Amino acid sequence: MSSAVVQLLVLAGIAIFLILRLKNVLGTREGFEKPPVVKDKDEASSRGGRRDFEVIEGGPDRDITDHAAEGSNAEKALTKMKAVDPSFNVGSFLEGARGAYEMILMAFERGDLAAIKPFLSEDVYDTFAEVVADREMRGLTIKTEFIGIRELALSDADFDSTTFEAEITVKFVAELTTVVRNAEGEIVEGNPNAIKRQKDVWTFARQMGTNDPNWQLVATGG
Q1: Do 170 and 97 contact (CB within 8 A), yes or no?
Q2: CATH classification number, 62-221, choose in 3.10.450.240, 3.40.640.10, 3.40.50.720, 3.30.70.100
Q3: Assuming Cys at both sites, which of 40, 42, 72, 203 could form a disulfide with 169, CB separation 3.0 to 4.6 Å?
């Protein structure tokens, strides 16, 4: 047998040995398997294993604690909301509140309350309607350009465990331009070239656990 053939047989034997060793060490894995979790610290130490992976259960819900301080009444209320309605998400709610704020504010400035009536409580709608009627009686028209929301933050939250009524208060700081003109078209307030900041604190409410996912504006403030 030539030396070349002997060398090939030796190399093949080494390759087979390495493959078997690797299979014994790594095993076989299919798909996206979870890494092994060591449940008992003493057991890991006795085996000389490394605790590279650890599952911590019962940690804070970042969707809540990113917007409400841990241990606060707001955090507790939001946690109860999720317990009643697991599909509820604080981040998604705030994104919806962002869009609702612009829609409601601009409709109010135009005096078009019919478009936003489903999103207002009866008390808020009546208050808005009084303001719009007063403007019309005085012959005032308002032109507003919405620039954007500079700040949005969850301010407070409350949940009634008996009625499942949830309330979330949100602080908005928006930038816009506003011009008020009288019946003669003269500017009586505002400047079309001056961007002003407007701060609003709005409270939205909804009965959790129902088929209606819509929130209503139930209170406004500054």
Answers
A1: yes
A2: 3.10.450.240
A3: 203
